[in-house]
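We close this part of the discussion by returning to an individual protein. Part of our work consisted of pairing the sequence of a single chain with a tokenised description of its backbone. What the numbers capture is local backbone geometry rather than side-chain detail. The amino acid sequence and the backbone structure tokens for this protein are reproduced below.
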Amino acid sequence: MTTTGIVGYGAYLPYWRLDRTAIAGALGSGGGRGYRSVASYDEDTTSMAVEAARRAVRAAGEGYSPYAVWFSTTAPAYLDKTNATTIHSALGLPSYAGAYDAIGGVRSGVGAMKIAGTSTMLGVVSDIRTGLPGGADEANGGDAAVAMCFGKQDPIAVEIGGAAAVAEFTDRWRTPGDPASKQWEERFGEQAYLPLAEEAVAAALKGAELEPTDLDHVIVSGLHARAARGVPRACGLDPATVVDDLTGEVGNAGAAHWALVLADVLDRAASGETIAVIVLADGVDVRLWRTTDAIEAYRERRAVPTVREQIAATRTDLDYARFLTWRGFLHREPPRRPEPDRPASPPTMRTHDWKFGLVGTRDETGFVHLPPARVSMGTGEVDRMEPVRMADTPATIATFTIDRLAYSLSPPVVAAIVDFDGGGRFQCEMTDVDPDAVRIGDRVEMTFRRLYTVDGIHNYFWKARPAATGDEIGTGTED
């Protein structure tokens, strides 16, 4: 009998990181050492989830199509509306594939991934961690998303055991509408979590017929750092097997953090290794994984960046004032331009494939119409078009302009006209880019972003971001 396991995974770290010393430089206290990852002004947990999911599906291989998407976050873009449907649409999944949210607490991410792991399904965890300016949550948080594709076709890691220990206690909480969480005194959390960790770890090892010495990698994740540090000793685990939790370089990504560290371990793990994932969140969950012989071949063929490659490629010069503006704690004077109108639902539904999946049309002459059209440019034939998805097609900048007057939370706006490989020309905004470094001929890739929000409706669409440096150098125009 073939066992369901991880057949592909993808992690997404935003382009920006904040140097924690910038916090103390501005406020006179707080901060600390190292960096935290920061979602850009045009990102939210849904858009980051899309990016992680695209990578995971690509890594799973051609033909992978999940029966359902399970999405979890503590910072949903919508309440009273399913966020997973946006991920579903951006991936171009068939309508019969399900889409479900599991939102609210960090532990919900573990539950969503457990459900996804029972069949050919996609589990996605994404979080944006925010705290009040100068507080520990602000400095120690981090933003990230991770997606895992599950199936039975050559899994690279299979679950071999697990256990949970649940108790009701109030260590961390946030009521709806509050901008930041509150936390009880640290010693209380430590007293609450460590006995539960001992119980869950012992039960998981016993159920899998393992000893602590059989574990090759131990991941301990939780928002209560003091309790997490105490778990290895309390549970009799070898400190040498406890892996780097990435908090010094990324911060703690909440619901997504354990999966981010697991992705980092899978990036380098050999076949036959045993991985323990211990998550502290309103109790303790333990999952035991074992890598398979398929992981070496998977690593050779996948075409997605590793966690460490993304850490090395991020930009670290984000200033604290801009960070506060993006987080909504600093309300700055907007450009003196008309604010955008509220996105309307009827046209959004009519152009669903284009708006969320970036699906154009190709006529019988091979010409690609962007946006999609019904009438052929070459022959005038009507409704003889073939749909063509452009979201995963690389492109080249044909020309660009730098607009310092457009309405944006992060001016200036770089608008570009790009030519897709194989045909198709498209005008779009660029993101995650240094305006001074843009050149004609630069290579770009498409990324799913939030253009703006009006009246609580998020206007999602696609932007371009740098993928590689082009050979041709040119100049654009500037307003």
